[in-house]
């Protein structure tokens, strides 16, 4: 089945479910409150129906040295068997040899897509997506300002229509607070934790806070956030019950987000509320052009510690990415069906 305008969104949702680790792993399960959970790799037909599982779960992926990009280590191989998927989407350098194996073993029929820069060139897949702040470019490279994700207008509308009771109990205005934490690029220093907490304490005087943290959030900050929510009659997700992430974005009159995760910021700017960016010193230097572009677009503003009537322009590049995949896939299938037109 060929992609069409009506199923580009299905491709987008598939892309959102494969953003981190090997193909099929939950997108950046950073302990952030992402709304999707996946048990392992899976392929789907382009009509959205399950086909069969392929490839390894993350625990079976090979290590990422250069040799691993070229071929599968026999010790780490997992079953790759027909029927081959029409479309395979992967991310993370550990997935590169598996994506190449799918392409080779399917006789070139499987259309392969890789998300983010593999750091070994654009030849590893039929189509690559990279964020615009990355340098990789090429005829088969799609670059957009924000990353693909599953925060769609329809899902937000559904979450508003049937709100999470824990969030609906909070009187508006409400502010969603998305807090990351330490990364290999820098630690969330105590002084910055205190600065964030002071700003949120001021904001809590104007809005009910709906707070979620990451597995990377320092324990001291996590405890302080929970105490802040309790003290001001807000909500802090402690990991119990259903994941409230989508509902938080849907009900938010403003979104406060820390600067350590491009994915988290990309989802926030699609939600339709003003996004207040708390910039942490030591944030990955390559994200600075990303934030500057978002500011020029009017999608993010500095976090002032209060609600303001700020202009905001929702920004979501996922449909454009999905359409690029659909268009390239259609060309690929057409070339297979008519070899003389290659």
Describe this structure in words.
Helices cover 32% and strands 13% of the residues. The protein contains eleven helices and ten strands. The model is unreliable at 1-9 and 15-68 (pLDDT under 50). Helix 3 (96-105) links the parallel strand 1 and strand 2 (111-115). A six-stranded parallel beta sheet has the order 7-6-5-8-9-10, sandwiched between helices. A four-stranded parallel beta sheet has the order 1-2-3-4, sandwiched between helices. With 342 residues, it is of the alpha/beta class. The longest helix has 20 residues, at 318-337. Residues 39-61 have a biased composition (Basic and acidic residues). It holds the Pfam family Mito_fiss_Elm1. Residues 1-85 are annotated as: Disordered. This is Nucleoside-diphosphate sugar epimerase.
Name its key features:
2 domains, alpha/beta, Nucleoside-diphosphate sugar epimerase, 10 strands, 342 residues, four-stranded parallel beta sheet, elongated, Elm1-like, six-stranded parallel beta sheet, Rossmann fold
Domains counted in the coordinates: how many? Answer: 2
Q: Report the sheet-strand fraction.
A: 5-15%
Q: Please provide the count of β strands.
A: 10
Query: Mean pLDDT, nearest integer?
Result: 81
Distance between the termini: 20 Å
Total of helices: 11
Question: What is the rounded Rg?
Answer: 21 Å
SSE string = HHEHEEEHHEHEHEHEHEHEH
Cα shape: elongated
Helix/strand class: alpha/beta
**Lateral strand order in the biggest sheet:** 7-6-5-8-9-10
- For this structure, the quaternary state is single chain
Biggest beta-sheet profile:
6 strands, parallel
């Amino acid at each position: 089945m060929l992609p069409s305008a009506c199923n580009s969104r299905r491709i987008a949702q598939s892309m959102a479910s494969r953003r981190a680790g090997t193909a099929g792993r939950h997108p950046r399960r950073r302990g952030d409150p992402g709304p999707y959970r996946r048990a392992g790799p899976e392929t789907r037909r382009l009509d959205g129906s399950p086909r069969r599982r392929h490839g390894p779960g993350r625990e079976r992926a090979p290590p990422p040295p250069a040799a691993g990009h070229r071929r599968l280590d026999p010790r780490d191989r997992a079953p790759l068997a027909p029927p081959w998927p029409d479309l395979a989407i992967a991310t993370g350098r550990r997935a590169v040899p598996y994506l190449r194996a799918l392409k080779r073993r399917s006789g070139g029929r499987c259309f392969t897509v890789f998300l983010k820069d593999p750091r070994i060139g654009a030849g590893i897949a039929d189509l690559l997506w990279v964020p615009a702040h990355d340098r990789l470019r090429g005829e088969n490279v799609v670059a957009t300002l924000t990353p693909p994700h599953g925060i769609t207008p329809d899902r937000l509308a559904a979450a508003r229509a049937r709100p999470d009771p824990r969030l609906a109990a909070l009187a508006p205005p409400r502010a969603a607070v998305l807090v990351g934490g330490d990364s290999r690029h820098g630690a969330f220093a105590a002084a910055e934790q205190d600065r964030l907490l002071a700003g949120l304490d001021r904001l809590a005087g104007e809005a009910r806070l709906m707070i979620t943290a990451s597995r990377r959030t320092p324990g001291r900050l996590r405890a302080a956030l929970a105490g802040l929510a309790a003290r001001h009659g807000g909500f802090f997700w402690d990991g119990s019950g259903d994941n409230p992430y989508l509902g938080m974005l849907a009900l938010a009159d403003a979104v406060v987000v820390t600067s350590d995760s491009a994915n988290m910021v990309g989802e926030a700017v699609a939600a339709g509320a003003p996004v207040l960016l708390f910039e942490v010193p030591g944030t990955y230097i390559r994200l600075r052009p990303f934030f500057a572009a978002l500011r020029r677009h009017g999608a993010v503003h500095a976090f002032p510690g209060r609600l303001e009537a700020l202009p905001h322009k929702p920004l979501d590049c996922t449909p454009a990415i999905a359409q690029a995949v659909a268009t390239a896939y259609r060309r690929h299938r057409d070339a297979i069906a008519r070899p003389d037109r290659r």
